[in-house]
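User: I'll paste a sequence; please echo it back and then give the predicted structure.

Assistant: Echoing your sequence first, then the prediction.
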Amino acid sequence: MLHRPEDKTAPSLAERARALRPAVAAESDATERNGKVSTQLMAQIHSARLLKMMVPRSIGGEEADLSSFTEAVEEIARADASTAWCVGQGNGCAFASGFLAPHVAREIFGAEDAVMSSGPSNATAKAIAVDGGYLVTGAWRYASGSRNAQWLGAHCNVFEADGSPRKPVPGRIPQMTVLFPKEQAVVHDVWDVMGLRGTGSDDYEVADLFVPTEYTFTRDWAADRREEGALYRFSNFNLFGCAFAGIACGIARSMMEDFAALAAVKSSSGSGPLRENAAVQRDFGWNEAKLQSVRAYLYRTLEEIWDKVERSGEFSAADRVSLRMATAFVIQTAKDVADFVYNAAGATAIFENQPFERRFRDMHVVTQQGQAHLSNFEAAGQLYLGLGAKGR
């Protein structure tokens, strides 16, 4: 596929995602029940090119800016968080396409229905150097969206042929990423969890699997970067954080809208609809202000850092910390908004046929990700206290 020029007349990514919300919502029960997005819904997502957002235009992708990517994921999350999670994760994995030789990137990500899934690092996974590539052995967890994927990625510690660890290179993360077809791995169905049940985030493992060198790269390493666009200056960790923040905003917004509808008809101890209660009015207004504020903070941060990276070609350590701070704060604040709605809705919120309990569960899984941890604010505190920018 040749270079895909940017079509400024086409619907935006957010508009395409918004148009899919009715279909996503209609499938949400089945998505949760089956632990995966259906084939039919995946076809619509692919048709809207929502899994091409991180793929370079040079191989037919959208190569989206961070705000466009985040807003599209947020739109899907307003209908179903699990589906949005799979879209966010699939794009985070597709970011690898900017670090591979073009023919390899096309092989893995070029097809319309291409999906790759990957779990986080495992300190015991090994890639041992051999002629032409590596022998890979390891097990990984949390392969979100893997039930619809054709390829898997895995992060490994690298060893020389004699068994000695490969010497570290300053500024380079110690683990290498290897890519291989899903059928070459053993996948374990383990996804029995409280929330984001539709993501099918299974475990997988390989033993002595040969992976050619051209199917390997190092995350965020300039020497492996094949694309010059601003997108590929960002870190993979921060891209996932953007998606998670968008999902949190989408969940919280839908919960607020659904509570407003409930408050118009549900009575408060026989004294009229909830929305006529002064305490409910105050708390709803307070949480509306919180949600609007953090959403504005998120997109302002994304736009400012994107503009800076476009101008300078550098995603600085301070930018990384600023983006971590913003995405973590947005997720935690959106969680507070969701908690308000869940409590304010009373017993109505506990029923599966109501629009609250699944979103409440999903939100409290989003907050368990590293990008949402309060430890992100330690790095922010260090930066703003004059101790310098540290971390990923």
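The domain at 13-115 is CATH 1.10.540.10 (Butyryl-Coa Dehydrogenase, subunit A; domain 1). The two ends are 34 Å apart (CA to CA).
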